[in-house]
Amino acid sequence: MQLHDLPTPALLVERSAFEHNVATMAAARPGVALRPHVKAFKSTALAAELAAAGHRGFCCATAREMVGLAEAGLGDDLLLANELVDPERLGVLAALARDDLARVTVAVDSQATIDAAAVAGIPEVLIDVNVGLPRCGCPPGDAGRLADLARRRGLAVRGVMGYEGHLVGIPERATRESLVAEAMEALVAAHAEVGGEVVSGGGTGTWDCNTWITELQAGSYVLMDTHYGRLDLPFHQGLFLWTTVLSVSDGWAVCDGGLKSLGMDHGDPTIPGADVFFCSDEHITFVPEGHRDTWPRVGDKVRVVPAHIDPTIALHEWLWVVDAEQVLERWPVDLRNW
Amino acid sequence: MQLHDLPTPALLVERSAFEHNVATMAAARPGVALRPHVKAFKSTALAAELAAAGHRGFCCATAREMVGLAEAGLGDDLLLANELVDPERLGVLAALARDDLARVTVAVDSQATIDAAAVAGIPEVLIDVNVGLPRCGCPPGDAGRLADLARRRGLAVRGVMGYEGHLVGIPERATRESLVAEAMEALVAAHAEVGGEVVSGGGTGTWDCNTWITELQAGSYVLMDTHYGRLDLPFHQGLFLWTTVLSVSDGWAVCDGGLKSLGMDHGDPTIPGADVFFCSDEHITFVPEGHRDTWPRVGDKVRVVPAHIDPTIALHEWLWVVDAEQVLERWPVDLRNW
Predict the structure, then answer these.
(1) Segment B247-264, tens digit of pLDDT
(2) Inter-chain contact A298–B246, Cβ cutoff 8 Å?
(3) What is the distance in angstroms between the Cα of B29 and the nearest Cα belonging to chain A?
(4) Which of B89, B247, B263 sits opposite A110 (nearest CB)?
(5) Can you say whether residue A216 is alpha, beta or left, with left for phi > 0 and alpha for psi between -120 and 50 degrees?
(6) Min Cα separation B315/chain A (Å)
(7) Alpha carbon distance A125, A147 (integer Å)
(8) How far apart (Å, rounded) are the C-alpha atoms in residues B289 and B31?
(9) DSSP conformation class of B237
């Protein structure tokens, strides 16, 4: 199929950029030194490409992502990098381990989450340590106590995780580096109390400056977005929303992307060669640069660059893999919902 | 099923609020005076409730919504209130009309959209008139010419539509009313040139002050959101995100809603009795009011009020209809994607 024939709006994966990003990361963090975070792309087909590149351990944010990866034969080493207390879903994850469909590790950060994991029969946990992001994770000084508690409850403690999510988007490298060093000092201290082989953390923005972790939890790097694009990263933009121009007036043009096809928490998407005015449910109103005569016409196609990859992909059924004008294949976004 | 047993995050429809909203609107705009906009809720089960309340004509933003309603037996009078130039999708809509599965009307605002509709065999159109929102719609003075063109191309012209989307969210009633009057003056003038029986427009925010239209295109009123909640409307909040507390520290608590379960273009959601700090992919960090001892605990449930109904529902598979603690049924969100 040719790109021009693809119904819009459609999410495109530029194959060459994707391959460049995967190869660049794999060279720096080969094999288990990277634990790709599937929350960014929610596709077992894409995950299989990363497994083929040597990364066979995955990081998940939901039980659905864990189960989908296991069912796709990608269950070598699955980490739920999130707290979970739902007994039914924890039971499903424990069954994956019991039935040898996956190695299952779950993050815990409190007595309540340890109790829930133990009761459900989860075999392994990481102690989730707060390293400065106001979200989950125990205080660093509490990690050792929780590890002891988990072991007493029969859980194997593989180590610690701590996500410096408040730092991964800082554009200025020197600031980013020094704050990451501080955050990781806390994680390393917690690890000394907890024990185990795993120190998990980081993200796309700290892929090369977080040198304290044993494994990096990065996902956005595979396709990128304009938010991470502001940083000095070697990864190329590989995700685009393919849209059709529906209406053109003397003051603006309108294409068929919008709030139903783009995650908006990082603000408006970008259209090269145009100013994005605003987004509606199924429309982007934009003002092309240059003289009115050179503007796109109704029926023309426009590539839109998403501001935030994760919630954008979560709105789509398919990722269309393209090489210039050729549509190569489509990957189902099969890990949506919970 | 009891509400407490529902896996989270889950979108709840409070049955009593929904019924109040439907009855309030139906009393003011009975039958065809309301053309419910299904883009807000994307569910044929919910649409069937509105049809049972007397509104058997529907408004759509996508071809998928049109086809889904027709397949669900709700095709009495379907309007695609959006421009479409994709020949394949237009062909599918034309076939719905040809096979008597739906009455099909499509908005057009240019020669290109008229040509596309005519070539595909679309039977009926509305001339989409720009009434001030910088988006689709022809200049009001151009509507008559386009209607003539459409009729020459064999299309039946049912009238005009014009959406005052830039005005529906103005909280101050007097301002809203006077600006709507101005916008509708342009639409009425265009209608005089176009002819036909239909003058379609409006939304939840102008439900009672837009007196120029023959049919109101409102969808949000059925369940509401915090954005429309700022206005002086008689509709009750009937949509909630049901979440579970995952982690509680001395400074904040975290529940399992987030960017994958909430449309974010209108900003953060609201949690009654708490300040929302920020949202991540699968987390909301919030600070409960009151003394730390009274805060929710891990495993407790929290009701979150979405800021924008349309893109929130588009992220979900199900709407769970509840009456206090009882889960009555679930409606599939079956009109997602395009």
Answers:
(1) 999 999 999 999 999 999
(2) no
(3) 25
(4) B247
(5) beta
(6) 6
(7) 9
(8) 45
(9) P
Residue numbers in B near A267 (CB within 8 A): none
| A interface test, pick of B115, B131, B260 with most A CB neighbours within 10 Å | B260
The 10s digit of each residue's pLDDT in B88-147 is 999 999 999 999 999 999 999 999 999 999 999 999 999 999 999 999 999 999 999 999
Amino acid at the residue B248: V
Dump pLDDT digits (tens) for A56-108.
Answer: 999 999 999 999 999 999 999 999 999 999 999 999 999 999 999 999 999 99
How close, in Å, is residue A146 to chain B by CA atoms?
14
CA distance B88 to B95: 11
CB-count burial class (<10 Å; 0-12, 13-18, 19+) for A208: middle
CA atoms of A200 and A33, how far apart (whole Å): 9
ipTM above 0.90, yes or no: yes
Render A198-235 in DSSP notation, one character per residue.
Answer: EEEE--GGGTTT--S-SEE---GGGT--HHHHTS--SP
Closest partner residue to A244 (CB to CB) among B85, B259, B283 is: B85
Q: Do A8 and B135 touch (CB under 8 A)?
A: no
Q: Which residue in B113, B299, B311 is closest to A259 by CB distance?
A: B311
| Shortest CA distance from B114: residue in chain A | A298
**What is the residue whose two structure tokens read 């068929």?**
A256
